Amino acid sequence: MFAIEEINKDPDLLPNVTLGFHIYNTYPSDVSTLESSLMWLSGQGLPVPNYHCQKQGKSVAIIGGATSELSVQMATLLELFKYPQISYGPYDPILSDKAQFPSIYQLAPKESNLTLGMVRLMVHFNWTWVGLVISDNTRGETFLWNIREEMARKGVCVTFTEKIPSTEKFPFSSYYKIMPRIDKSSANVIVIYGNTNSLRTLQYAQMTYLILKKLWITTSHWDITIRPHYNKFSSFNRVLIFSGQTKEIPNFKTFLRTVKPAKYPENIFLKKFWKSAFNCPSEFKEPKRDCAPNASLDMLPLWYFDMSMSSHYYNTYNAVHAVAWALHQLLLTKSELRDEDSLVMYPWKLNSLLRDIQFNNSAGEQIFINDKKLSEAKYDINNFVDFLNGTQRMVKVGEFIPQAPLGEDFSIHENVIMWNEYYKKTPQSVCSESCGPGYQKSAREGEPICCFDCILCPEGQISNQIDMDQCIMCPEDEYPNKERNCCLQKMVTFLAYENPMGMTLACTALIFCILTFLILGLFVKHQDTPIVKANNRTLSYILLLSLSQCFLSSLLFMGKPTSATCLLQQTIFGITFTMAVSSILAKTVTVVLAFKATRPGSRSRKWVGSRAPISIILVCSLIQGILCGIWLLVSPPFPDIDPHSEPGHMILKCNEGSLIAFYLVLGYMGFLALASFIVAFLARNLPDTFNETKFITFSMLVFCSVWVSFLPTYQSTKGKSMVAVEVFSILSSSAGLLGCIFIPKCYVILLRPQWNTQEVVNLKSYSRRRNHSKTFSPAS
Q1: Spatial distance between the Cα atoms of 214 and 224, rounded to a whole number of angstroms
Q2: What CA–CA distances, in Å, run from 66 to 25, 177, 322, 354, 692?
Q3: Tell me: the pLDDT tens digits for 331-378?
Q4: What letter would DSSP give residue 297?
Q5: Angle at the Cα of 763 from the Cα atoms of 758 and 769, rounded to 5 degrees
Q6: Domains of the chain
Q7: Distance (Å, rounded) from C-alpha 310 to C-alpha 196?
Q8: Distance CA 219, CA 197 (A)
Q9: Which of 385, 498, 523, 735 sits between 20 and 30 A of 89, alpha carbons compared?
Q10: How many CB atoms neighbour CB 525 within 10 A?
Q11: Over the stretch 522-531, which tens digit does the pLDDT of each residue have?
């Protein structure tokens, strides 16, 4: 009505032509729709096929089809006569098939991104457990396929799917079974997709089965406001509706406020509506004082009449103007051709013009009918609220604009949304409660991905967001806090001298080193005494000097590692220990050679002296030096950082470089120690006044025990403790050699000097000669 009045008043559009219209009712029934179509074609109350009995101007186009099903049903007849049909309902790709529907045109924008917007809403509120209710038709199946795919992509699960058959043959009682199934579902959010016709009985079914726990998401195609107004409560209260954005048509609301039955007496639908809306008596013909003479449509509640510019209103308005512009171009063409039959309108001639029609409506928007030029729909997200006092409101709470850049395409104002009475805050719809920071999701076997358990992050990993599928590792220079929800900076540490452990080991090393030098000084002072001269005093000096260096080499393992200290610590440790062990081996060999040299005709006499022991030390130390040299050339030790051994710390240490070389050096020392132990053990009972073999045997036993224990302990410790184990092994094995070999001699020198004389030595030798069949002499 508004669009036709606007066109008839426009002097530039269809001048000297007055447009009119006929209104025919349609039903969600094939039979009723065909009957109305025949009535329209024949112009009679009783359909007369292939005849037109109306005396007034013949209609040239049809604006209708609130649903694609109705358009298809009407096209069954209208396509026979090539009548153009412009659908004001939602866009349906099926109607774009020009081979099947050459005379059907669509104005509504495409809705291919509707499912994307709905899922964005679910993701925003973390609704991952959602039910679907759709109309059982082609549009419903397409929507179901698209939304399932998008939900799966975003990690949202479909709890259930209910299909509402959009056929009149579906028993009404079956609808009452749907609501209980929905109510029993664990999902609190339900998406409903369909149109008012296909879902009309669902609105009646909810009257007897009130569901307040569910939140509904739907589109404006299903007019949620149209329902029995006498029902004060609604299961569909506080629903969220995706409505296509429209521009406001100038003067449209002013027109609505002035609409009255008296102004349009031929409109029987308006009169019936007015009587119902304003409770007029049955004999009402014209507005009277007792029938709200000042009544206006804007006084009606929302469930009776919506004053806002809906997508149906907007598409209908544009459809009327599209027909007017097509007629205008047709008349201009006939006028230019001077067609005598210019006043005769053939509907089929409009088809070629409507296919390419484009114009700007009064709201300033460019309108196309060509499917290839139709834009994607933009959506307002509205919140329908039905208050207990009977008032209703449709509040815009957000929007979804697919064409906008990512991040600006979706917006929602949570503080504006009014949830239903059951929820005091934003409702939740999940299968499992969210996993907080510090936990990760663990899928339940045989259940959807939205159903999961929460498990604590593994050692060394964190999760700093909710519902993380997998915890993440902290960077190497950071470590997880106790709650495992964030990473903390690690402290850089090493076996420092200031550290209590480092200070203890360093002081121990220095004390033993000083003690070694004191023993060396004591031996030098008493170098001419029998106990010092026994077993080659030169070897004793070399051994004491080697042990002092062993104690000092342990200091290289402490402090901040550098390239120099890493290169020196293992090589100096290996060579000095080799010298010490080879000196002990030389001492042991000296005892054996001295014993054999006393036998008549023995060839061992030439080896007795300093030549053989020194040769042993040089050869053994040279082999160790070659191993260390190869180590340094092939894969030398280097400063390294160990971020994993101690939580919260980054350990600065020396990396051995080549573990094979490291264990070869240790193994070679172990071989020398084992050789010394075997030789000393075999010579432990050789007769001699100051025979050292017993002490060497015990010292080698201590030495081997320490280093055999060192290997597994070293491998099982990490960080600073690994360095401390090596330092402790160096100190304890060196102290064992020093104590077992030299402390007994110091005891004799300092506390029993009377035993350290030549007379006592001769006396002991005489006693041994009486008890043995052979004579033994001192090794000196």
Answers
A1: 15
A2: 11, 28, 17, 19, 115
A3: 888 766 555 555 567 788 889 889 888 899 999 999 988 878 888 899
A4: G
A5: 125
A6: 2-108+310-369 (3.40.50.2300), 114-245+378-416 (3.40.50.2300), 439-489 (no CATH), 500-767 (1.20.1070.10)
A7: 14
A8: 14
A9: 385
A10: 11
A11: 888 888 787 7
